[in-house]
User: Fold this.
Amino acid sequence: MPDSNGHRAAILDSIRHALGKRESDEAIAAEYATITRSYTRTGSLDREHLLDLFTDRLLEYDAGVYRAAPGSIRDVIAEILTSRGKHGLAIPLGIPTEWLPAGFAFDVAEGWDAYRLDKAEGILTGCAVAIAETGSIVLQNAPQQGARILSLVPDYHLCVVFADQIVETVPESFARIQPTLPTTFISGPSATADIEMTRIKGVHGPRFFDVVIVTV
Assistant:
């Protein structure tokens, strides 16, 4: 059975065949590169203002924001889990052991279904890139991030973001992600006001979201 990438390739191939076109991926990429783009594609903020903007956006979304030095990630995570009353979290493959404090349980959630994830106290992940302008964090199906289901089912998400992973604008973020991998954009805890303009949290993902920003 073909995987999701195989399905995508088959669909695109069918469309090209129907249109009478059989360009290679290289030809398509070259054509895409020639498109004129007049929108802002790069940011202008220095590192400190970039971090401040990202922090402000996260706080506006009601996310918890913490700062950590590279050598104190474990201690900050322990502080957060203690304050949240957590005994442990599920983790994807690839989470560095130096992130994981003693005294808490961390189970690799490889292949877990929605029922088992729903029973977890939360999930701990890294990210592919973060966007200061929108306060968004981008996850892909890759080490330290895991399958899309990990960021949708648990009620709590703790994400570690390194300062050099933060860009200012959305276009900048696309240069850092793998275009063929399943991708999720997260902007704070899940919430919607679609029902009678009443804000409800946890409809499409975790109700509670904390971010550790690792700075040098």
Observations:
- The chain is about 30% helix and 20% strand.
